[in-house]
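Researcher: Next entry: SDR family oxidoreductase (Marinoscillum luteum).
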Amino acid sequence: MSAKPLSITTKDKVVLITGGYGHLGKGIVDNLSYHGATVYVLGRSEAKFMEKFQQSNFDQIHFVFCDIKDGDSMLKAIESVLDKEKRIDAIINNAFYVEGNNPEELDNTQWNISIDGTLNTLFRSIRAIVPVFRKMKGGSIINVSSMYGLVAPDFDVYDGLSQLLSPPHYGAGKAGVIQLTKYYASYLGKEGIRVNCISPGPFPSYTVQQNKEFIKRLEKKTALHRIGLPEEIGGIFTFLVSDASSFVTGQNFIVDGGWTIKS
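Model: Predicted structure:
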């Protein structure tokens, strides 16, 4: 007799996400809530949250103040959700911050701030959530990297568009995210805590999409010959939160329309 298939639904799951009201964050939150999850968006601006989710079901999507630069703020946010829900099933580390993008003009301060914003913030988040998941005897940590954590930019794509160039500290930090994911997946696996990573490709913001020439260049780099849409990123997160991914850990899922297979 075969076992019952594991569900991809996130019904009854409690999920935390940083960067949840950003361009990709909205797509992630919408997909999780559509499949039944209760989602807590951790951020600094409740006004931005309300603007982004004004048409949403606030019985399922909530705001909690959190400044990812501050480890104590992350701890307080987690404690706040735990007090209310009595459980947390997953955390998605999506937010980041960088300063500067000219490879030859970056100063030490910009480099250090950006490594903090792309890598150190995830360490602080993992450090804060592990005791919770340890008590629950399981949980899902999902980190967000980038295709530029795997490959270098094609600088021809950015020719004449230096303001849009992906800077070196961003790629270096995102490469670190992939390794950090593997490390903690190995370290925490015996306790039933899963750690995985998502590496998005070209998902330019709506503002960037106004530059039609740049978008054409991006489209030519992908196997699908188009850019990604925010609603196309959420499904992989829902899968990794759901029980259907219970035997998946330490993996980096590349969602890039085939960009990196051509590099």
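Model: Note for the record: The chain has one domain: 14-257.
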